[in-house]
Amino acid sequence: MDLVELLQQAQRLTNETKMDTEVPGVERTMAQVLQATQEFHSRVTQTGTNDLQAHILLGSKGVDLPKLTQKLETLSARQSFEPLDPVTDTDVQGYLKNERENAILSVIDETNRSIFESVERQKWRCVYSEWGEEKESLLNALVGPNQQDFPDVQRQMVPTAMADEPIPYSRLNVHQQLYAEQITIYNESHIQGIQRPNLVSTFAELVQKSFDDELVAEMWNVLECMSAVTLLSRSVEPLKNRQTSPHFVHQARTYLERRYRTYMKKFIESNLVLARRGGIPSVYNLVRSYVGVTFRRPQSLYGLHDVNNGRPLWPLVYYSMRSGDMEAAANYLKESGTCPDLLKLMTLRKNDDTDASMAKLEGQLKLEFNNKLHDCTDPYKKAVYVILLACDPLFTHVELMRSIDDFLWMQLSILRSPDQRDFNIEQLTYSGLQSLILEKYGENYFNAREKTPLYFQVLALTGQFEAAIEFLARTEKNRPHAVHMAIALNEISMLAAPRSVQQPLLSSEPDDPTPMKRLNLVRLIVMYAKCFEQTDTEQALQYYYLLRNFKSEDGTNAMLSCVCDLLVENCGDPMLELVFGVEDVENSLRYTGGIFAEFHTLECDKYSLAEMVGDKLSKRSNYESAIKLYFIAGQLGKALRLLCSLLAQVVHQPPQHGSMRGRMGVLIKRLSAALAERKTDVEVHVMVTYTVLSQVMEFFDLYHAGESRLALEILSINRLIPASSLEVDECVTNLKRMGHEIIKVLPDILLAAMDIVYKEYVKLKGSSGTASVFGDETKSVNKEAAVRHLRSRAKALTNMAASVPYRMPSTTNQRLVQLEILMH
């Protein structure tokens, strides 16, 4: 509200309250005014301005402020349920009073909380109960159907059973299984040395018969057509072979022309009345009927030149060339009698005649084209000249480009090899066309994500197999087709692979022609086979066999590396038996059966594979599995080294079923049987360490079984511990000749030996006989001599612990010294 509105409102109120009669004014003397002023001043100075305003405010609401103040002052803070402040430590009476009141307050507070929670639970229990009753009443209010509407279904118990050896569910779909079967047949042909089939034709036929997918079948047809080329040399790099050979361009044109003939036949069959077919079936008559139907309306003839028997001439010539029949095109030109020079050039091209007269004729026709036909209104005539003269590659021919096939055929038709190029005019090369498709237009132009088969065909028809397969492999749906296309091309030496298997899926080398790429087949197959190698191991190995000719940077065979990685991740007994077979009953070092036995080559056999897997497992500290692989590979020396390392860790433990020590015992028996046949392959010091550890393991077995006499006999035979102080130096010297694994287990041996001596000492002190576990040395002597002998033996054990060139654990020395002291 502004000042003007405020003034207007004040004037309106003044007018409303204005009375006709005037109110008499109140007159006071000066003394009365002074007295009223003094009374007002005294009230203000006594209560203060704030108190006065509070009195006025609360008094207007009917509140007596002085009386309310008196009530608030009478309240005591001790009557509220607040924790009391602690008192000083010296005020004992106050402290006890405060603690008592605090306890009472805490009980009251806890009681209030429990009551509130109980009430809350009871409330929700009642709510749920009432809602349950309400739901039941609602359901009961519904009219149920008659029992006759439902069939009489009787529940039956269906027994279920699981196989003793369940087979994992295959992760290969129907199409992948069909592909895998053909790969297996192909590998078997190679292993048996018989003639191998062409995988491209095999897969194309398979897809045509068994796959209900026309787009996939069309992709395989393109690849089959493009690969039906006799290579100049299999030793030449595939990329260079492809760039220098004109056969790939010819095959692409042939495929497009064949497909266009099929299109024209279908078009004519749908317009048989208008086509008026007749004569001998040929491209000549086919084109004549097609042009007759296409140009039947007068407006379609606008801008066209020349006529042949009532039909436009240049469409007849163009569509004859588009169908791949140069002879039919020449016949139409010959019948019309026009352009004799062009007819002559067409005849020379048809007969592949490249003499000097042809170059002169081309020059004349190019001059004519530039002077007269460059702005020709007949697009078909201009297209014929452009195709025959291979000129004007930038012209788009919009009137003729009805599909990507037309565009691609036109570009392929005007290509010239580097040795045929005329540098005076602009011409298109094979490499330029590939760059145009892959780099300039690319995936966005062709809408490749939604039209994957179309983009694949364009790349394949321009000889870019690697880029086409890599694009196809990006999607899960098309990856199986891409993998087998790459395999089929690689088997006929048409796939360019990088020099290193560590390269990405699609790469290029510095000396490769632009824009050609290389496809890493090893990475592609591994990526594909990893998905099912756990469930379909046999099929995965068939794919890995295709990589036998690839080498990694360190010279390792790619096939062995792939299978090795599979076994490292799955080194259980079932997988090892599946790959390597089972142990021969007659020869423990021989394994029979197994999938990998089928793939035996000069560089890839199961023994070298087992050694490679064992090496990787040992680097991962999976010694137990590595020992099994070394045993399969016949590498007993490596197996013994790892076994000694494991025995040094568990040999002192008590025997338990299923423990690592128990499994080591089984391996010792197998290795001992194998060493009886091939002991010469093992180094001497490894053999000595293994033998001693085997004896030590037997010692601890007897020790834990309570066979003290037999246990000490084993130690005495191996000269591991002294019988007296005179033998300490000899035992220490003998210990130095053994491996470090014996040194690691020595503290446990000394403790076990000392424990046997101490138990014998306690037994001897508590009995009257003189029989001892130490045999003849204590049999025919008195009790005191036997005690002195035991003390001497304990002293020898303590001295040996202090003499060995190895820092004994402090607990071992303390225990040995403690037991020796107890025996004195």
Automatic annotation (TrEMBL):
One of its GO terms (molecular function) is chromatin DNA binding. It is found in: Nucleus, Nuclear pore complex. Keywords: Membrane, mRNA transport, Nuclear pore complex, Nucleus, Protein transport, Translocation, Transport. It holds the Pfam family Nic96. The keyword Transcription regulation does not apply. GO terms for cellular component: nuclear periphery; nuclear pore. One of its GO terms (biological process) is protein import into nucleus. Its main location: nucleus. Belongs to the nucleoporin interacting component (NIC) family. PANTHER family: NUCLEAR PORE COMPLEX PROTEIN NUP93 (PTHR11225:SF4), NUCLEAR PORE COMPLEX PROTEIN NUP93 NUCLEOPORIN NUP93 DEAD EYE PROTEIN (PTHR11225). This is Nuclear pore protein. It comes from Drosophila erecta (Fruit fly). The lineage of its organism: Eukaryota, Metazoa, Ecdysozoa, Arthropoda, Hexapoda.
